[in-house]
Amino acid sequence: MREAAGELGNLDPLHKRIATEWAGRAARRAPMRTGLLSRSIEPAHNGAHAGVEATAKHAPFVHWGTRYVKARPFITDTATPGAWLDRYAAYIDNTLGEIQ
Q1: Nearest 5 degrees, angle CA 8-CA 94-CA 44?
Q2: pLDDT of res. 57
Q3: Are 74 and 29 in contact (CB under 8 A)?
Q4: CA angle 30, 31, 34 (to 5 degrees)
Q5: Tens-place pLDDT, residues 11-66
Q6: Which domain holds residue 7?
Q7: Listed residue (68, 6, 55, 5) closest to 27, CA to CA
Q8: What is the SS3 assignment for 10?
Q9: Comparing 65 with 98, which gets the higher pLDDT?
């Protein structure tokens, strides 16, 4: 059981895969004028979460909009939590299956 807890506690490889896929979808969905915005999208992950960040200075204004510009949410609209839940469940089942 301690081995299972240790393995399940290390979700970083799974977070990395999910964040990388999400970043790819977000980069393809990002509005393109110069390409700076889509090139600035990177996966963000650690042992606790998987995410995506856009480092271009204008990214939050494009994503969330302003009072003058309509929002174009290229990151949140590409999130697919349902698919990720299936991956987490499969990871847990595989980890527990290896221990038995």
Answers
A1: 50
A2: 96
A3: yes
A4: 110
A5: 788 888 889 999 999 999 999 889 999 999 999 887 778 889 999 999 999 999 99
A6: 2-99
A7: 55
A8: coil
A9: 65
